[in-house]
Amino acid sequence: MTVSCADPYDPANIFARILRGEIPSDRVYEDAHVLAFRDIAPVAPVHVLVVPKAPAVALPDFAATASDADLAGFVRGIAATAHTLGLEEDGYRVVINAGGDAGQEVPHLHAHIFGGRPLGPMLAR
Ligand code: 5GP
């Protein structure tokens, strides 16, 4: 089931539970603003999710309600995660799905980092 950007935030969502340590995850980076962990069903040799600690369903409510520190911390956390993973030299891709047409499945904002091989065109035509 996909997420609507208009959904209310549900603190019982799976990434909120991972953030609280109630569910295990393969963590690769953490700071005051984000937690990054490996995707459970990777589609690239490196596939990591960067999750802001501030509660937000998707990009629209995060952009509207998060503090400037949380907004900046999310972007910096994505870059820091890619740096920690050693992806800067060969490059990487960052994807944020927002809502139904994008296929967002988990109702807590997250960025996907893909890397570890040439990633091809951005979308299939
Ligand atoms: P979305 O489609 O919402 O942008 O991406 C959700 C991602 O979360 C998917 O790539 C999916 O494999 C991943 N995922 C879903 N549940 C879990 C989980 O419990 N643990 C981890 N590590 N990844 C998950």
What does this protein structure show overall?
The chain has helices at about 15-20, 60-65, 70-85, and strands at about 25-30, 35-40, 45-50, 90-95, 110-115. It has about 120 residues and is α+β, with helices and mostly antiparallel strands. The chain binds guanosine-5'-monophosphate. Guanosine-5'-monophosphate (5GP) binds near residues 40, 41 and 104.
Element-by-element helix/strand order: HEEEHHEE
Counting DSSP E segments of at least 2 residues, the number of strands comes to: 5
* Strands in their spatial order, largest beta sheet: 1-2-3-5-4
Poorly predicted runs of 5 or more residues: none
**What is the straight-line distance between the termini?**
24 Å
Could you say which overall geometry the principal axes of the C-alpha atoms support? globular
Number of helices: 3
β-strand percent reads 15-25%
The helix/strand class is alpha+beta
User: Which kinds of small molecule does this entry bind, naming each only once?
Assistant: guanosine-5'-monophosphate
Short description:
With 125 residues, this protein is of the alpha+beta class. 24% of the residues lie in helices and 20% in strands. The two termini are 24 Å apart.
Essential attributes:
binds guanosine-5'-monophosphate, globular, 125 residues, 5 strands, alpha+beta, 3 helices
Question: Secondary-structure map with pairings?
Answer:
Layout: H1 14-19, E1 27-30, E2 34-38, E3 46-52, H2 59-65, H3 68-84, E4 92-95, E5 111-115
Antiparallel strand pairs: 1-2, 2-3, 3-5, 4-5
